[in-house]
Amino acid sequence: MNHRYFYQFLEPLSNELALLAKELEHSVFTSPRTMLTHSRVFIENILKSVMKEEGLSEVPQMTIVDRINLLNEQGILIKDVLNDLHSIRMRGNQAAHQTRIFRYSESLTSWESLFNVVKWYIESYGPVSTAVPVYEEPRLPHDEQLDLDELLSRLVSLERTLSAKETPTMHPSNAEVAATVSEEENPTTEGYSTIRRISYMDKHVEIPFFLRDAFLLPQRFQKSETFLIRLGEVQQARFVSELPHDLVDLHKHVKRYNEKNDKTLFEELSIFVQEELTRKDITHTRRGELLFFYKSDYIVVTEELSAIPLSPEEFSGVPSLLKQLKQNGIMTVGQLPKELVSLAKYANAGTLTIENLFDQIKGKQGVQN
Questions:
Q1: pTM
Q2: With contact defined as beta carbons under 8 Å apart, do 162 and 19 qualify?
């Protein structure tokens, strides 16, 4: 089922550009940082098209500001469009490098600037038959759970397609849409209300609704890691929902464990729940951000941070881990798992190694959270 989006009128002229605009519209309220960062790609492709229409030659390693300055020097850009282009570019640069929270008002400002640029472009270079609709604010999503990884993946895919193709021109085309976008929504019910209690002796921990089916990653339980792995092998304690009401005698499901292991697991489960509550608060506050977590601490993954190579020159003291990551095709910070403790699956990657890597990555942010 196809849902209407504002820049649908671009589809006959440039399918990929229209779909990129669709993802930007989706991200205005769900991820202002994403919208601001990737708006630069949108205007860069328009600038490339203008240069082609005007017969201006491309220069290797040409930046967005180079293109804007060239077109301005040629007297092609009107003042308002020049200001809008620079506004989109500068906000996008900030979103790519800064770890601060970006506001809806900022993405809305860029959304309006994008409209002004597109309107000027269509009226100057597009077919006479193409009518630009009256400006509309993007729609605020309702009951929608943001899947940031999926959104970023679609944006990157569209941008690669645009980069691989010849510079788009605003002429009708019968070309097939190069990328498909899922229209399925994933509404979710989240909450802090207690769904059940898990006890050990005279103590208990309350499980909030959003954790009722959470996966119990063994590496999150430093003292109980092997115990949880053994329980998982007999299909016990893989998820919170599989834990019994009382952890007393849980060890009886596996050999060579005792009551002390039950107690330790309960203590670490209590810590796990508190860390997840903290993470949920952080995720809500930093909604639309790509985050790395280590225990209850986190890192905001900007575009600049994401591009840093995982090399001995950038990260010291963890050569074995870096070598294993490279063997698995994980070459940059942005390719690391969001749950950094899962790196413990690699040989000789203990707690100290992961903490060392986490601290070094966080230090490269330049700005504290």
A1: 0.62
A2: no
